[in-house]
Every structure is written in structure tokens, then in C-alpha cells.
TrEMBL record:
This is Glutamate--cysteine ligase. It comes from Chryseosolibacter histidini. One of its GO terms (biological process) is modified amino acid biosynthetic process. InterPro entries: GCL_type2/YbdK_subfam, GCS2, Gln_synth/guanido_kin_cat_dom. It comes from the Bacteria. SUPFAM superfamilies: Glutamine synthetase/guanido kinase. GO terms for molecular function: glutamate-cysteine ligase activity. Keywords: Ligase.
Length: 414
């Protein structure tokens, strides 16, 4: 298959949003993504291209992915296209008393009993994964995320981009956490999905590493040190060589050298495209600032140890924006003057610095970003809405409100 032409840093972006299909009344998962795609295509298949947005299947039948059909640089236009496709899908699903539901994890799905894997084309890979890892767990069949694909043209651009992305990854749960409930209970973690993401492939540690990628900054070194290790480790479970190490790699950011992009994979999906695209815009502009050395020179970025960044990520996974970052060197990398601060204060500092510099993409998204920094991550807002009543009825009511926010492309206020 011919690869699309490569583009340079920040010339376009690939965005992917994953949503659950649930019963409109009970919120039980509805494993009918194949029927949704068949409704549009006339037959069972994996993808339906609808202009600049494509609908795709995922591992399980109760999740649909909406993704940009090609790299886009107009994120406002892409947001509206996502919202229009959500509306169209909901109109179709209404015939099955079904709707799309946001957030990164279903609050009371039982994956051991309710998981149904995609049974149609290209399901060989899913079957192998299921054989190795048993994909009925929360980290496989109950997780929805937002993926951001950032382009690079050559090794020089990859090195700059990979260094910058590593710096940002630990802070992402402080913006994006949206999975505070599993099995009908508050878990005590604000980004529970990410906890499972970190551990669900622990049988083969080389697949996920420490989630924060290793400090590797060339295609040759990455293949030799990471992809070859993954290939060797999975070979015993995959004698037919069905699994490509590039697909298997589950670090928080994954380079695709074949198409020239790094895919960030640890962002919980939000309540609506407006919120997701606001976060994506802030993440992109922050990465741009690192690549252009407005915060810290590239050589210094490359020296950051994976273990140190992983420790910060562990804290934000648990506490999101309330996580205390007490590493002065990390704060200083962003030009933050204090020696200790909550992650929310660091993001506020980044936002204000962007606004002062006249950053138009951030100015256009300031309203949504302000909601997140002022009212809290979506996990914070969900828990506030629940209050002390954590009954299934109240949880159902809150997640119906969230589904309404998705349908109307509006942010959720508790």
C-alpha cells in the first residue's frame, strides 16, 4: 500500500476519538459497532470514510473510533466535523435504542462477561492479543482515549519532536483524566484507565516500558533498542509472525517511522469534541514551544531520564491536576519560578505564557481550557456531580448528562 507523502513538523495533525455504544436508558454496553458500520457501507467492514472524518472499528464491538481521514491543520473545522459525525451516528443508533457515551471508562461495565471482540476483517491480530493477554479486562475492553498524531519528516525532526513529547507526557493526566469510576465504584484514582494501560501487558514488560519512552532520538537506535526487543519477546507467542512490533509498542508516545509520525496515546477522552480539541491545541502549542526551545534547549530536553518523568506521570495518574510536582528542575524547564507546585498551577503558568506571547490557537480555546483549569479535570467534575451519592442510579444519571454533552458538543459542569 502506498504511503501518504510525508509532511514536516506541525504541518498537520491526526486526531482520533473513541466512544462507547451504550443503551440509551440503562447505559449497558451495546456491542453493535459492526452493525453501525454496515448501516453506512452495506456490508461488514472496518472503516467508513465520511469526508474529513472516518469511522473505524476497535478491538471490541461496543467502541467506535472517529478519526481525521488525513492530517488536518484546521482544528476548529475538525472539531465541527467530529460533532456533526457524532450527531449522525446518534441518529442511526437511536434505531437500536443506543447512543454514544464519552469518558475514558464505562463506570459499571463488567468486562469479563460483556466483552465481545471484533469478529470481522483483520481480526487475526485481535485474536492473538486475546490469546496472549485475555482482552476481557478493563485495560483492554473498557477504555476510550484521544490519540494525537504529530508529524516528522526525518531523523532530525524526530529527535526534536520525541524530546519535546517526552517532556509533556507526565502532565497530560492533569488535563485529561476522565476515568474515576470502575465496577460501579470510585477507584481513588483520577486516571484509572492509565493505571490499567500501564499494567495490562506486564506479562511482556518490553511492550509498554515505563510508558514514558526511552531517551532514544534516531530511527536506527529506536529500532535496535526497542522494536527488536519487542519482536524477540513476542515471537514465542506469535509463531506465525502476525504481530508487527510497531503495532504492539504501547508506550505513551509511539513513533511510526513508516509514515513519519509520533502518536500520543495516554490522553483520556473528554465529554465532547470541543473539550478534546481544546486540550489537543494546548498540548500541540506546548510541544511547539519545546521544539523551538522557548522553554528549554533541545540538548537539555534529551537528558531527562525516563525514570524521573515516569515518577511524575505516576503522581498525575493518581491525582491529576492536584498532583504536587516537587522537582524544581522539571518546573524550571517550563520557566516556572517555584520549587514545588500542583500540576494545575504549572498548566496555568503555561497557558498564561502562551496568551502573553499572542498564541492565537490558545486564545481561541481559552474558554474551554479555563473550565478545565478552574473547575477541574473531567474526573474532578464527575466526582463533584456525584457528591456523596455513589449509587448506580446516580452514576447512571451523571453519565447520561455526559452523553448529552457529547450529543450537543458542550462541556460538562457539575
Amino acid at each position: 500500500m502506498q504511503q501518504p507523502p510525508r509532511i514536516h513538523l506541525f504541518q498537520g495533525y491526526g486526531i482520533e476519538l473513541e466512544y462507547m455504544l451504550v443503551d440509551s436508558n440503562t447505559l449497558q454496553v451495546k456491542p453493535i459497532t459492526d452493525e453501525l458500520l454496515k448501516h453506512e457501507l452495506g456490508h461488514y467492514a472496518s472503516d467508513f470514510e465520511n469526508g474529513i472524518v472516518t469511522w473505524s472499528n476497535e478491538l471490541v464491538l461496543h467502541v467506535v473510533e472517529l478519526k481525521s481521514s488525513k492530517p488536518e491543520n484546521n482544528l476548529n473545522g475538525l472539531e465541527h466535523a467530529f460533532a456533526e459525525n457524532v450527531e449522525r451516528i446518534n441518529a442511526i443508533l437511536a434505531g437500536w435504542d443506543t447512543m454514544l457515551m464519552p469518558t475514558a471508562a464505562h463506570p459499571f461495565m463488567n468486562p469479563l462477561h460483556e466483552t465481545k471482540l471484533w469478529p470481522h476483517e483483520n481480526n487475526e491480530v485481535y485474536n492473538i492479543y486475546n490469546t496472549i493477554f485475555d482482552c476481557r479486562g478493563h485495560g483492554w475492553s473498557n477504555l476510550q482515549s484521544t490519540h494525537l498524531n504529530l508529524p516528522f519528516y526525518d531523523d532530525e525532526e524526530f529527535a526534536k519532536l520525541h524530546a519535546a513529547v517526552r517532556m509533556i507526557l507526565p502532565l497530560l493526566p492533569a488535563l485529561c483524566a476522565s476515568s474515576p469510576i470502575l465496577d460501579g465504584k470510585v477507584t481513588g484514582l483520577l486516571d484509572t484507565r492509565l493505571k490499567f494501560y500501564r499494567t495490562n501487558q506486564s506479562r511482556l514488560p518490553s511492550i509498554t516500558g515505563k510508558v514514558i519512552p526511552e531517551a532514544v532520538f534516531s530511527r536506527r537506535n529506536y529500532i535496535n533498542t526497542i522494536y527488536e526487543k519487542i519482536k524477540s519477546d513476542i515471537a514465542v507467542f506469535d509463531p506465525q509472525n502476525e504481530l508487527n512490533p510497531i503495532w504492539v509498542n504501547s508506550r505513551g508516545a509511539i513513533p511510526r517511522f513508516d509514515r513519519g509520525s509520533i502518536e500520543i496515546r495516554i490522553m483520556d477522552i473528554q465529554e465532547c469534541p470541543a473539550a478534546d480539541l481544546a486540550i489537543v491545541s494546548l498540548v500541540i502549542e506546548t510541544i511547539k514551544a519545546f521544539v523551538s526551545e522557548k522553554f528549554l534547549d533541545v540538548d537539555s530536553q534529551m537528558k531527562w531520564k525516563t525514570e524521573t518523568l515516569a515518577q511524575i506521570l505516576e503522581r498525575t495518574t493518581e491525582q491529576a491536576q492536584d498532583a504536587v510536582i516537587d522537582q524544581p528542575e522539571y518546573l524550571s524547564a517550563f520557566g516556572f519560578p517555584e520549587k514545588s507546585a500542583k500540576a494545575s498551577a504549572l498548566w496555568q503558568h503555561i497557558l498564561e505564557r502562551m496568551i502573553r506571547s499572542g498564541n492565537e490557537p490558545i486564545e481561541n480555546r481559552k474558554r474551554e481550557i479555563d473550565v478545565i483549569l478552574r473547575e477541574g479535570t473531567l474526573s474532578h467534575r464527575i466526582l463533584k456531580a456525584l457528591g456523596k451519592d455513589q449509587s448506580k442510579e446516580n452514576i447512571t444519571g451523571v453519565y447520561k448528562q455526559l452523553s448529552g454533552c457529547l450529543a450537543q458538543n458542550k462541556m460538562f459542569f457539575s
